[in-house]
Design goal:
Layout: H1 16-19, E1 31-39, E2 45-49, E3 54-65, E4 74-76, E5 79-83, E6 89-93, E7 99-107, H2 115-119, E8 124-127, H3 132-144, H4 149-179, H5 184-196, H6 204-211, H7 215-225, H8 230-248, H9 253-259, H10 265-276, H11 280-285, E9 287-289
Parallel strand pairs: 1-9
Antiparallel strand pairs: 1-7, 2-6, 3-4, 3-5, 3-6, 3-7, 5-8
Helix pairs in contact: 3-4, 5-8
Length: 290
């Protein structure tokens, strides 16, 4: 549903009960009143806002300060932030820093949502750059923009998966970090190497040399702490870089494919759609400029 369908009032500012009659395709919770991706212009900011609904805010690219109540947060690419109804917050962009964000606003009608059981008192749920949650968020925005009941059910399903994945990742990440603290620097070293050389083929032997770990140990470390293999992680890095180039440049799809390590644009296109559920062109069509 477009913003101009709300009789001039922003849906995120409406009381949850007032939105249900306008959401004709939603027959049960969760009710999603807004899902979009926007690229903030220079100097854009929001100060001391309170909403009556839940909000997920995901940084697709860039940086911003995002205080919630009296807690200051600095959010960067990949950060997923959650805040509850009536929590005062601001979104403050920084000079010469881009900010592209996915915003999901939702509520559960008269049903109570046990957010404390999922997230305790956390607002910053984790960094999901190169994680499938990033793709789920993009898919949700895409389906939200399509008319019809099927797409709305997809949105609801995707939202619940995102909440579950974020909650599971948060609790598991804390425990994993405690048990393998001595290996974390080497894991970071490998992840940085992949991020710096994503535009070419990388062999597992290179990662062995960089880290001093064996192939099997690297694979086990990645599966335990990242949830995927190093090469799968590399694919998600390439997807993220492709999105970044699509937002920030005028490059063609073919030129973007070359820059992220694919000599054949069709191979890149098939990979991107298989992993994200949409084409890069569809991703770009979701972007809103203010």
């Amino acid at each position: 549903m477009e913003l101009n369908d709300w009789s001039g009032k922003h849906p995120a500012e409406m009381h949850p009960a007032d939105t249900i009659g306008k959401l004709l395709d939603y027959h049960f919770p969760p009710y999603i009143t807004l899902a979009h991706m926007f690229n903030a212009p220079k100097g854009w900011e929001i100060r001391d806002r309170e909403m009556t609904q839940f909000v997920l805010q995901y940084v697709v690219d860039g940086f911003c300060r995002y205080p919630v109540g009296d807690i200051p947060y600095e959010t960067r690419k990949g950060d997923l932030l959650f805040h509850r109804p009536h929590e005062r917050h601001s979104i403050l962009t920084v000079k010469d820093q881009p900010y592209t964000c996915i915003s999901i606003v939702f509520h559960f009608g008269s049903s109570a949502f046990p957010y404390d059981d999922l997230f305790q008192n956390n607002h910053l749920l984790g960094n999901f750059a190169g994680h499938p949650v990033e793709s789920l968020l993009s898919q949700l925005v895409f389906h939200y923009r399509q008319p019809g009941l099927v797409h709305q059910v997809h949105c609801q399903s995707l939202l619940m998966r995102i909440l579950a994945e974020a909650a599971q990742w948060g609790s598991a990440h804390s425990e994993r970090t405690k048990t393998d603290a001595h290996n974390m620097p080497k894991l970071v070293l490998i992840k940085n190497y992949l991020s710096e050389h994503y535009d070419r083929e990388i062999l597992i032997g290179e990662l062995e040399k960089v880290s001093g770990l064996t192939k099997n140990y690297i694979l086990a470390l990645f599966r335990k702490h990242v949830g995927m293999s190093p090469m799968q992680y590399l694919t998600w890095i390439r997807i993220g870089k492709a999105k970044e180039l699509a937002i920030q440049s005028n490059l063609s799809i073919g030129e973007i494919a070359l820059k992220v390590g694919y000599s054949d644009v069709h191979t890149f296109g098939r990979m991107y759609k298989k992993k994200t559920g949409q084409s890069l062109t569809q991703f770009c069509s979701n972007l809103i400029y203010y």
